Input
Amino acid sequence: MERVNTKWVAAAASIWIQSFSGATYTFAIYSSILKSSQSYDQSTLDFVSVFKDIGGTLGIFSGYLYTAMTSKPHGRGGPWVVVFAGLVQWFLGFFFMWASVVGLIAPPPVALMCLFVFLSGHSLPFFNTASVVTAARNFPDYGGTAVGIMQGFLGLSGAILIQLYHALSGGEGNPATFILLLAIVPTLVIFFTMPFVRVYESVTTSNKKHLDGLSVISLIIAAYLMVIIMVQNVLGLPRSMQIFSFVLVIVLLASPILVAVRASREEKQSLSTLDYPVLDTSALLDFPSPDIFPDGDLVVTEDSNILEAMSTVNFWLLFLAMLCGMGSGFATINNIRQIGESLRYSTVQLNSLVSLWSIWNFLGRFGAGYISDTFLHKRTWPRPVFMVITLGIMAIGHIVVASGLVGSLYVGSVLIGMAYGSQWSLMPTITSEIFGIRHMGTIYFTISIAGPIGSYLLSVKVIGYFYDKVASEVDNSCFGSKCFRTSFMIMASVALFGSLVASVLLFRTNKFYKMLVAKRSLK
Output
């Protein structure tokens, strides 16, 4: 029993939770049956879908619950309580959504359907907080890599859930079945894995080797899913091959358990060789006091709560950078299919484009965490450097899409997708480093609210406005690069401005990150 109570088993359990919790990325699969069964028009469906996004970014409650449940290490609480609170919302949201679609209950009022959709989306912050914050606490020296792995699997989860749907229905079943599948299968998976998600305040030096092992596994799964998606969209797969391909996904997802077993065995052996066991790790885990580094930086080196964080300039610099980066990324995701249609892409091309977005999103989430950790440890590069770089890459991606050249949407989506995904691993890790780990969940999700705010401003006030100006008055359709050129040039400017804001954050935290690396080198 002792062997299953390790941070490596916690990491493997969190990977499974993240891999089955990204249902918000699959809304396109069941939106049509939701619309037809409830007799919604397009504007009503769009209104209902907004509550999915609101729920998915409203993580203040999950952050407070996580802090309360992990404040007393030896109490009855823990991250699993946060997961369970999300699981209840997940099941209720999808079950009642399915019951409404199949007629098990009378068609609910729009407001009640919005509640069901909100609950299904609001479960995500609870799963994400438990997995991401626990990973950052269990692997403090390589928080970027650990957070990147967790966020990466969340990015892949949409593709994994769609593969499950294809395996069970051949991809041609009733979308109502997919909603029922979401209510049952992830609920069972998450319920049986959540007890293993725990915080372990340990001091070891072998984290990098085994985190690299988990990183390799995540890359293999992403590459495999990319191949399967391309083959399915271009050539098609028989039902038997779809089942076989999903079984292989499950086998690959099980492989982190092997890493956990090996890492736990090596940790136990290394600890048994110590002449003097470490009984109190707090001195090594806490940030250095100002007396040790009198020339600190414009950074609070103690755990800040949300109000204390919001009173700092660094918080609002992060918020503004995410407003620009996540906001323009969200706006691209929401309109990518319509952009392809305006450029006369075929259905197969559009399906490939939408499906592959999750892969680029994963590469950004994982890659930014891993690369920023590597450069932080080896070259003392402050992590905000990579926020500056990725937001600059996002601006280039928007310009590529605006060009309207042949293949520009494919190239642009790769750049924007990876840059957008990068923010989801860089921002939480930077948050934990400059504001402390104790209230990370609350602060991190408060900053992430900037994403939907920016998305609304750019989608409605920019993309929608300029599209309507050039669209046909007869059927509101538009074809050619002119449809989105102005909008994406504006979004390129917004992303570039976000990069400049991140540069200010870089300047303010430069000395702090040098101090952080010096502290870790003393361990």
About this structure: DSSP finds 19 helices and no strands in the chain. The two ends are 29 Å apart (CA to CA). Residues 388 and 500 are 7 Å apart (CA to CA). Confidence is low (pLDDT under 50) at residues 276-297.
